[in-house]
Design brief:
- It is a single chain.
- This protein is an all-alpha fold.
- Helix content is 81%, strand content 0%.
- Helix 2 packs antiparallel against helix 3.
- The two termini are 18 Å apart.
Length: 171
């Protein structure tokens, strides 16, 4: 048994749901377009880490620097997460977000390894400064556009879902 459906009431209900959903999408896009503090902090930490590796530290010193770098990155991530007003459910993480993360890792890691190979013949300190600068620059150039590209996909996914609901309501 199916109950009769009032199409006008269903449309009003859909519109009432759509407005808060659009606000969430607006906030996700605003977060991707603005708030560069965590991006600059991450790039700065990366620069300090890579430059510090040129100091020719003993094994325990390198382990300590890696632990400090990981802890500081965790602090930056935690602060950014707490500052964000939007909490996306894991199902809202689109393939673009995963692709942007993977591509960022490949570009930044590849730049770091390639620049490290190219500066091997230089003095360790000068080479690490060049490597740190090139890698941090590549990170900064990559993060902005890909973050905005990945955030746009969240709205597109919701619009398709609402569009499918509209098509179903018109039948």
């Amino acid at each position: 048994m199916s109950a009769p459906v009032n199409a006008e009431q269903a449309w009003r209900d859909l519109q009432r749901i759509r407005v808060p959903q659009e606000r969430v999408y607006d906030e996700v896009e605003r977060s991707a377009a603005g708030g560069r503090g965590s991006t600059w902090a991450t790039a700065g930490l990366m620069w300090l880490f890579l430059a510090g590796l040129g100091l020719d530290l003993p094994g325990w010193g390198v382990a300590l620097v890696i632990a400090a770098y990981a802890a500081l990155l965790a602090v930056v991530g935690t602060v950014q997460n707490r500052r964000s007003r939007v909490r996306l459910h894991h199902t809202r993480c689109t393939w673009r977000m995963f692709a942007a993360f993977g591509a960022g890792a490949v570009v930044t890691g590849g730049t770091t390894l390639l620049s490290g190979r190219l500066v091997d013949s230089l003095d360790p300190m000068a080479g690490s400064l060049i490597q740190a600068t090139v890698s941090a620059t590549a990170f900064l150039l990559f993060v902005g556009p890909t973050g905005r590209w990945a955030a746009r996909s969240v709205r597109g996914r919701g619009v398709r879902a609402v569009g499918a609901a509209d098509a179903g309501a018109e039948r």
